[in-house]
Amino acid sequence: MVHDLEALSMNELIHLQGTVLEALRRRFERPLALVFTDVVGSTAYFARYGDIAGRSLQQLHFDLLSRALPLGGGRIVDTAGDGAFTVFSTVDQAVDVVARLLLTVSQANEQRSNEHHLSIRVGVHYGPVLTDGVQVTGDAVNLAARVAGTADPGGVRVTRAASGELGGRWRVRCRAMPPVELKGIVQPVELFALEWRDPTVFPTKVRIVETNEEHVLPAKDTITFGRLKEHDGRVANDIVLWHPDVQATMRLSRWHFELRRTPNRMMLRAVSDQMTEVDDLPVPRGTEAPVGPNSVIRVARVLTLQLLLDARNSSPGEEDPRAAGTLGFTVDQRRNG
Predict the structure, then answer these.
(1) Is 165 helix (H, G, I), strand (E, B) or coil?
(2) Which residue, of 11, 19, 199, 245, has the greatest Cβ tally within 10 A?
(3) pTM of the model
(4) C-alpha 101: how far from its chain's center?
(5) What is the rounded distance in angstroms from the CA atom of residue 299 to the CA atom of residue 286?
(6) Cβ pair 174, 316 in contact under 8 A
(7) How many other CB atoms are found less than 10 A from the CB of residue 89?
(8) What is the CATH number of domain 26-196+314-323?
């Protein structure tokens, strides 16, 4: 039926509007798992290494995402700059693909020098959208994009709505974060950090005995340790080492060792001639030793580091009984650094 809108009364137009909205919801609204992945530090990378290198890094992100998608049956809705927006029928499918993507990023980084590592962050949300099978729109899309921006490099953030849809296998790997305020979102948003790596293999934090400090390990593939804080205006080490005795601090090298996350385990690589020991065994400069939760690292005979798991890494709710016994896309589409 064709309506002459100019001939309709106000009440008739309001009624027609309601009819149209109901038809839109009935035909095109459905809940989907929404995932935004975004390259971290791309603006600085473009500035330092040029457009060709920067574009190649973006393309690596898209290529690895495309290879991971068949695992969960999702599809890429859009790419802009260095980010991608993908959708899935279920959150479990979405997280399966995210974990596969991040694993293949680690594998790719093993073949690349540290300064050319690809690092991405991920946001996952579940909510109603309007979709015709091609376009996907709605407030839930905007929220998912904002969530991605809160994640650490290499990290995954999921909303409460998304975590509630997860089966027990993934839900037990969600750790509650403080609520955050997001641009354009009225209320603070409850988020969870999802530990996509095997928590029995990869430690999540380090304790320094002599200073009684604890540091959460960054989600980067390579984490640097040493006494130097900055070099040429840039961060020199992810974890800065020091000792209450200044003379003891000077025995620590400016860059002392690295922790490297490989696809299946974490390795310590010594980069200093000063002593580094793992579980009482020396690790000479340029060599590696495997480490895991509870490993003890001795540094220059002045510091003792213990690798630990985060005890707060628990489920945000009841564990799914089915799992018993089991374990820079931005809204305005600008390149996000």
Answers:
(1) coil
(2) 199
(3) 0.75
(4) 11
(5) 15
(6) yes
(7) 14
(8) 3.30.70.1230
